[in-house]
């Protein structure tokens, strides 16, 4: 892993992170879009290469790097944890996005990762898919559901979270180190 970290581009990007919370479940959820073959499947015993593929394909344009920098052992521990719940969206039989929930102390369920792959963005699935993630989060019986987004995410992300019932709680400034294409490829090929 150290070799991968040394291959980073070194370029950093500023980002404003917004933490949002939802204290009560929505009264209604968006209905599943018609006209498409869709399946939302909960993952069990997800192979590392498949998780990294999903994470990269969903997060590449938005500079997601944290999970790519985890060691195999750390990622296996996270994926096998009873505190982690991952669901993959399939559209027309192919992966189209995923969401990852993590059960945190004090009865909080965090929507850790949520997104669609490039070929599914703009197809009208976003609201329904986010609604499915929120419904799944509440099914764990938390006191609150939380999510974080940043200014490097899809431009509509913050607004969509708010439309779906999340309220901003705090913001912080941070920087994201961009992975070079070589570093990204090295992680994905292991």
Present the secondary structure layout.
Blueprint: H1 2-6, E1 12-22, E2 38-42, H2 48-59, H3 72-80, E3 84-91, E4 94-104, E5 108-116, H4 126-139, E6 144-150, H5 157-163, E7 167-177, H6 181-188
Parallel strand pairs: 5-6
Antiparallel strand pairs: 1-6, 1-7, 2-3, 3-4, 4-5
Task: Describe the 3D structure.
The chain is an alpha+beta fold and 190 residues long. It has a single domain (2-188), classed as Aminopeptidase, CATH 3.40.630. The chain contains six helices and seven strands; from the N terminus they run αββααβββαβαβα. Strands 2-3-4-5-6-1-7 form a seven-stranded mixed β-sheet, sandwiched between helices. It is globular. It starts with a helix and ends with a helix. Residues 41-190 form the N-acetyltransferase domain. Pfam families: Acetyltransf_1. InterPro entries: Acyl_CoA_acyltransferase, GNAT_dom.
Give a quick set of tags describing it.
6 helices, alpha+beta, 7-stranded mixed sheet, 190 residues, Aminopeptidase, globular, disordered N terminus
